[in-house]
Design brief:
The chain is α+β, with helices and mostly antiparallel strands and 159 residues long. It is built from five helices and eight strands, in the order H-H-E-E-E-E-E-E-H-E-E-H-H. The protein has a four-stranded antiparallel sheet. Strands 2-7-4-5 form a four-stranded antiparallel sheet, with no helix packed on it. Helix 1 crosses helix 2 and helix 4 packs across helix 5. The relative contact order is 0.18.
């Protein structure tokens, strides 16, 4: 068990939103995550479902999709080792904005909203680093979505 905890701790050192945290904070944080395993094709969570957890990919790949009709799935992105998803659910109490599917067999580390905010409350310095990184990454994702929307709008003018 200790070897598994050590490998998760080493993994967390490489996760972007946890960069800059000391070993003690990483150890405390890693203890709050639960490990879950998914087979290729398993739905991790469904668009419009209520969620209260954020996940980090420890192994494998996860597809983020819009699924108005499962036969016409539109993959938005494929996430890989070290990427996180579901972060909006730890920030707000609204339905999920997309569906996530195990693109390959995947090992996911999951933290609840309650544990996430309890950690931030207990370790303000580390919490501020995490929330700042999270805000920057969400901002970058929003900028990318804005670019795609603008390109789509510009293209629609020609149709």
């Amino acid at each position: 068990m200790q070897q598994e905890n050590d490998s998760i701790l080493e993994f967390f050192k490489k996760v972007d939103i946890f960069s800059g945290l000391d070993d003690h904070a990483l150890h405390e944080l890693s203890n709050l995550f639960a490990e879950k395993n998914y087979k290729q094709g398993d739905i991790i969570f469904q668009e419009e479902s209520i969620g209260n957890t954020m996940m980090i990919i420890f192994g494998g790949e996860v597809r983020v999709s819009q699924t108005p009709n499962p036969e016409m799935e539109e993959a938005l992105v494929v996430l890989k080792n070290g990427d996180f998803f579901g972060e909006m659910a730890v920030l707000e109490d609204l339905p999920r904005s997309a569906t996530t599917i195990a693109h390959t067999d995947a090992v996911i580390l999951e933290i609840s909203r309650e544990h996430f905010w309890k950690f931030i409350e207990l370790d303000n310095k580390s919490g501020l680093k995490i929330v700042t990184k999270l805000a920057r990454i969400i901002s970058a994702r929003l900028r990318e979505a804005d670019k795609k929307l603008k390109a789509f709008t510009d293209l629609a003018k020609w149709i």
